[in-house]
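Researcher: Last one for today. Full complex below.
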Amino acid sequence: MQGNIRQIMTSLLGLLVLSLTLFPPAHAGFVGNDDGEFDVSSTPSYVFVQEAFDTCCGLHWATSPPFNDVSLQYNPDFDTSYWIQNGGDWFQTVISSDPNGCAGFHIQVWNTGSGKLNWRADYPTSGCITVSQILNNNAVWYIQENVYNGDPRYAGMITSVYFGLTGNGGLSYTLYTGGHGGWWKWLRSNICWCGTDGGYATFSSAGGHSYMGSNVNVNAIGPPFDIATLENSNMRYSCFSNSGTTLMSQLFSADGGHC
Amino acid sequence: MRREQLVFVIVLLVGSSLILFVVPPQQSPVRLGFTSHRSSFGSRGIGNVGWFMPADTLISTSYSANRTLVGFIEATLNVFPYQITPGTVLYLGLYTNGRLAATQDYNLSSSHKTPATILGNVENGVASFSNSLLGFTVSQFPLNATLPVGTTVTVTVWVSNPIWVEVDGTSVTHSYESFGLGSSPPSVIVAEAGNIGPHTLSVGLESNAG
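Model: Here's the assembly. Have a good evening.
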């Protein structure tokens, strides 16, 4: 009997090792579509990402097929969305730009099960708007997801998203998503300096500081197990600084080291 | 711990780990990500001209869909965050072929991260603003049936205090004013009923581009 148990235990442990071998983490982390992940310590009122370009670099790319546009994506964790989000949806917010600084603000909601686009809203609804010098040194790109934290029935739901671009000129837009206190929850997230439409952006000169902030503490957590977004790039990210505070940061760079 | 309990715990651990690693798989089975391909009609939302929309007036704006409507219909009304009276309530209605499909109401805040400023003078209730807008949406989703090209989509707006709404000077469509209907969108509406309003509201519409 004891021998049988030992055999079963050995087999099961073998299975465990095998499962870990067959299903390793999907990526190395802190490059392209994976800057690590961040979460908040309690229900926030808002959680923002702010990308400030350094004087060295601005944001420039050599190629980004298919349309030569790039995107700043504020993406929720795929698996958390799959299990916890309303209907298994994936609530993505994006700022996109072409090489001339013609930009757009976007919310897209995809279903993690079916891959269907369940909802989207864009500003402008078609095309883009040119904002002076948003690819230059010292420009700032900003996305803030505002979260309801009142009535417990709706606490944690995203009510609106504020988009901001600051270069020589500025453009800001707040998109209210509707619903009774919001349709979708804020979930642990990451950012991506990426291409668009499934593409890979090769940044030639790019770098700056990336900030993740909230009215509650923001915590760095390990890279996600599953990367949801198809887009990718060569952008590299440092480890997070000041995790566990209301303003966490990391560096991004096209040619620097990564965490 | 008894042997049976030990085996049970181990089986549970291994089973849990398999579930964790296998469902969903590490390579997402679906294609998520940012697509710039859109299916939109109505106003683009570009422009800095605002109109001081009166209170207690139902304003409707209709567009004919230039593509098949699939999955959802999303409509956005653009408002300038400029001197909004605290407690202002905004009611939006979304109609397909005259039938009410969705409603949405908002309690507007008077505090905004980037308030708009007026550039120049106000003339006849119209002014130019800085680049800051609020987009309020009303949506029908999921859309249970595909709607054909030519479907008339109407958006109604009612507000309890005057607000500065973005207008579309390039649109060939008019907005229509109706009075005395109250704040709640009626269940049925006739497109282009009422008086032609002085300006066409900037109303953007989107659906799934497929």
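DSSP finds two helices and 18 strands in chain A. Residues 16-26 of chain A have pLDDT under 50 and may be disordered.
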